[in-house]
Design goal:
The structure is a single chain. By secondary structure, the chain is an alpha/beta fold. It has a single domain, classed as 3-Layer(aba) Sandwich (D-Maltodextrin-Binding Protein, domain 2). Helices cover 48% and strands 17% of the residues. The chain contains 17 helices and nine strands. It is globular.
Length: 360
């Protein structure tokens, strides 16, 4: 009896501390589901796959993450992703702040129209937000609602494409039907600019373009427009950077707590590397060359290194909005920024202004 008790105690200790023959990781799922809104070929989809690959390699296959692109896990309804992740129906998600903003109002900060675009260096400004006090405030707001954040990614600044054009001033937008996501700040922004915003899920958007239901749309160039071959639908591109689409790498808290501390550290390492990759994909050909250099360093050079030339080669007319022209858009959307500053939280907006000022 004494030997039996000692044996039981040894097995219990082994299970707890991970001695040979048993492992905390033995309880891991065979597959963890990672949700992504657009296609696998998008920069967003590639960033999610990069994270999954890094996790598999770093954990020697203990953690197997499968990417489900195209909104498969939430049947195309983008705003359902956050509650499904929080409730455990989804394990991981690489998600846009836009799609989670109905549940977390603070995530409307990057969608304040022309808020970041008006900065001297929009990429430095966005990086300062992500790394600064305002970024922490956004992460804290999400985690208070029940989702653990592992890091940021980036889908890119959202640019305007239309079947009519060019668009170089607010007057050029008057009466145009523009597809927007189901977030009120987008609707209000385009109404302020004189356009007619049409709320449409991304799964329905290309059909809407083909059928002429809408005249245009706004999405990141590298992340969405080029992989989609937007030139098949629209011949005009306006480079106005009116807002940015940061991505958040989130995990269900119970799933996170199920991993060993060692594997949690490896997941955070993978998230940090995937963040650099995601930013590089969204910025290549549009920054000072940093993005292209990074992709070359990690052996992941993108096929397209000059997005503007690519669009022009496919018959698009590219209009580069100047800082002077941008002022007209900025002024016409002032009321939207003022109104949403109160909804988002003046303290958060002030923190973001301070973060951006620190890198001017």
């Amino acid at each position: 009896m004494k030997k039996f008790a000692i044996c039981c105690l040894f097995l219990a200790l082994a299970a707890f501390i991970g001695l040979p023959g048993t492992s905390f990781a033995d309880n891991y799922k065979g597959e963890y589901k990672l949700s992504v809104v657009p296609a696998a070929s998008s920069g967003w989809g590639k960033s999610a796959q990069r994270f999954a690959d890094l996790v598999r390699d770093k954990t020697n296959g203990r953690i197997n993450i499968k990417v489900y692109p195209g909104g498969q896990l939430f049947a195309g309804k983008q705003t359902s992703e956050f509650p499904m992740l929080r409730n455990g129906a989804i394990d991981f998600a690489l998600a846009s702040t836009i799609n989670w903003s109905p549940q977390v109002k603070e995530l409307n900060l990057p969608a304040l129209p022309f808020f970041i675009a008006s900065e001297p260096d929009r990429y430095k400004a966005m990086d300062a937000i992500m790394a600064g006090q305002s970024g922490k405030m956004m992460r804290d707001a999400i985690e208070s609602k029940g989702v653990k954040i592992l890091g940021w990614g980036e889908n890119g600044f959202r640019e305007l494409t239309t079947s009519k054009g060019p668009v170089a001033s607010p007057d050029d937008l008057k009466g145009m039907k523009i597809r927007v996501v189901g977030s009120p700040i987008f609707t209000e922004t385009f109404r302020a600019l004189g356009a007619n915003p049409v709320n449409m899920n991304w799964s329905e958007a290309t059909t809407g373009f083909q059928q002429g239901v809408v005249d245009g749309q706004e999405n990141p160039t590298n992340g969405i427009n080029i992989p989609l071959h937007i030139w098949d639908y629209h011949k005009h591109h306006s480079d106005w950077h009116y807002l940015i689409d940061p991505l958040l790498l989130g995990v269900n808290p119970k799933v996170w707590d199920s991993f060993t501390p060692e594997d949690q550290a490896l997941l955070l390492e993978a998230a940090a590397e995937a963040e650099l990759f995601s930013k590089a994909l969204s910025r290549v050909g549009m920054d000072d060359g940093t993005a292209a250099a990074y992709l070359e360093k990690v052996g992941k050079q993108d096929e397209i290194t000059d997005p503007y030339a690519t669009m022009e080669q496919h018959g698009m007319v590219v209009t580069r909005i100047t800082p002077e022209q941008l002022k007209a858009f900025y002024e016409q959307t002032r009321g939207v920024r003022d109104d949403w500053t109160q909804k988002i939280g003046p303290d958060l907006v002030k923190a973001a202004q301070d973060d951006m000022a620190s890198v001017r």
